[in-house]
Amino acid sequence: MRTQIVAGNWKMNCDLDESQHLLNALKQKDFSKSNAEVIVAPPFTNLYAAHKTLENSSIKISSQNINENDKGAYTGEISPSMLKSVGVEYAIIGHSERRAIYEESDDLLAKKVTAALKHDLKVMFCIGEDLEKRKADKHFEVVEEQLKNGLFHIDASEMKDVVIAYEPVWAIGTGETASPEQAQEIHEHIRKILAKQYSQEIADQTSILYGGSVKPNNAKEIFAKKDVDGGLIGGASLDADSFAEIVMSF
Ligand SMILES: O=C(CO)COP(=O)(O)O
């Protein structure tokens, strides 16, 4: 059975006080009633405090990005081992905002994946097409290319530490979601690509999350789909009640 996951990507939101407030509110929630693994991804500056606050909690911590190098003259960057040292277990890699705004290429993302795995960080690898590609019916090809170029250099044995997040760019922060059927269709396609590249067993074991305007009122319907193993939540993860309700959708 695949791990079901609900992860909150806080993006560039929450100063330290706000972060602690949100985490303490999440800690009060009884997630034991949900089958999902719960992950939060606060900004870098809040990670260590988050780790301390969540020490006796089942909630795991992710970074939103990493640098691909171990250490050295990379001003302003954060290495995988630094993240490990402050209690981070996951790294989000290839978010569409990093691809689009910071021009992160497939080649760079492939290096980041390698670096994360080398330092025992699990990877949440994001893929997804923009509106233009969706309208041109090219979404299947886009995700296949993104997987091939950014992820498929790793061995089958490393896939146990990888989660895929399908996030159509046109649904991020827009209030527009992929329909449950659209999500199922492309998640099934992604699983087929994984089976072709690695094996059916690996495809069946890899969690594939949906991201893009997931809210308490639509999570259940989307998560009910066979190949949707959870969600990567943006806006709704900044409110403890909304995020908890999404977690409880499992
Ligand atoms: O980008 C996302 C999560 O990584 C999704 O963001 P929203 O849930 O705000 O659409």
From TrEMBL:
Main localisation: cytoplasm
Molecular functions per Gene Ontology: triose-phosphate isomerase activity
Biochemical pathway: Carbohydrate degradation; glycolysis; D-glyceraldehyde 3-phosphate from glycerone phosphate: step 1/1; Carbohydrate biosynthesis; gluconeogenesis
GO BP field: gluconeogenesis; glyceraldehyde-3-phosphate biosynthetic process; glycerol catabolic process; glycolytic process
Key words, A-Z: Cytoplasm, Gluconeogenesis, Glycolysis, Isomerase
GO terms for cellular component: cytosol
InterPro entries: Aldolase_TIM (IPR013785), TIM_sf (IPR035990), TrioseP_Isoase_bac/euk (IPR022896), Triosephosphate_isomerase (IPR000652), Triosephosphate_isomerase_AS (IPR020861)
SUPFAM superfamilies: Triosephosphate isomerase (TIM)
Catalytic activity, as annotated: D-glyceraldehyde 3-phosphate = dihydroxyacetone phosphate
Root EC class: isomerase
Chain residues that bind substrate: 9-11, 173, 213, 234-235
UniProt subcellular location: Cytoplasm
PANTHER family: TRIOSEPHOSPHATE ISOMERASE
NCBIfam families noted in UniProt: tim (TIGR00419)
Family under the similarity heading: Belongs to the triosephosphate isomerase family.
Quaternary organization: Homodimer.
Name assigned to this protein: Triosephosphate isomerase
Source lineage: Bacteria, Pseudomonadati, Bacteroidota, Flavobacteriia, Flavobacteriales
Chain's gene name: tpiA
